Amino acid sequence: MSIKLICIDMDGTLLMDQHNISTEDKEAIKYAVNKGIHVAITTGRVYNCAKLYSDLIGLTTPIIASNGAFIGDSNGDEIYNNPLNIEDAKQFLEIAKKYNLFSYLTANFGIVSLEELPETNIYKVLNKTLRKEEQIKLEVLNNIDDIYKLYDGQILKGVCLEKNDTNKLLIAKKELQEKCPNLEIVSSWHDNFEIMKKGSSKGEAVEYLTKYLNLDKNEVMCIGDSENDLSMIKFAGIGVAMGNAIDKVKEAASFITDSNTNSGVAKAIKKFI
After folding, report:
1. Are 109 and 75 in a shared domain?
2. Which of helix, strand or coil describes residue 137?
3. pTM score
4. Boundary-marking domain end, from 180, 197, 214
5. Is the pLDDT of residue 195 over 80?
6. Do 97 and 179 belong to one domain?
7. Engineering a disulfide at 222: which of 42, 165, 188, 236 sits with its beta carbon 3.0 to 4.6 angstroms away?
């Protein structure tokens, strides 16, 4: 079967750094779109951020955001939504605090946290380059109850970060896995882990989108680099690992392309499309 849907991760895959897409990748994606192929941004980032890049490339296929907890069309209308409940969010924040790990919650509009984000946070850095109306909302509130009073049904993901002592991350991640079997827990970088409600993974979201578009899994190509991409790499008819991908992703992939800094996405599209 020919490929009719391409699902592409952002960080470490489509993006050369935290912000930029190569000209070669843009041109290859446009080529695929002009061939009538659906191309979907498939990311751990929040929907509003993913939409900026989807619009930049000129895509109209629904966007998979927050590691599959939300699928929205190009107008932001909901196709799939699987928010975290307050009990799971509380458990997550409590364990993060226990190990002195920085954590925050995400919604489609941006970030909600109990303390100010560091200046190095990707959304803070990105906001400096955006017009005011495009900026990702970053809100600091006093407690989890205040967050859920305002945004119940909108909190999609929790993120836990630790750059210096990654062993603490592994311990906290394992404790959450033991205490919260109803959560999906994955890493998108070596210095983090992210939680979503069960039923929210990139693989499940790609499967949902495949059915939504009346396609077969053998008509799907997925491209990624990190642990949170593993489920969609395994689902796809053609799973593509970036040259910079972790070993688990490379082992699961049917093809390994070049790195994100060397237009690996474009090279995969040129090979299979």
Report:
1. no
2. strand
3. 0.96
4. 197
5. yes
6. yes
7. 236
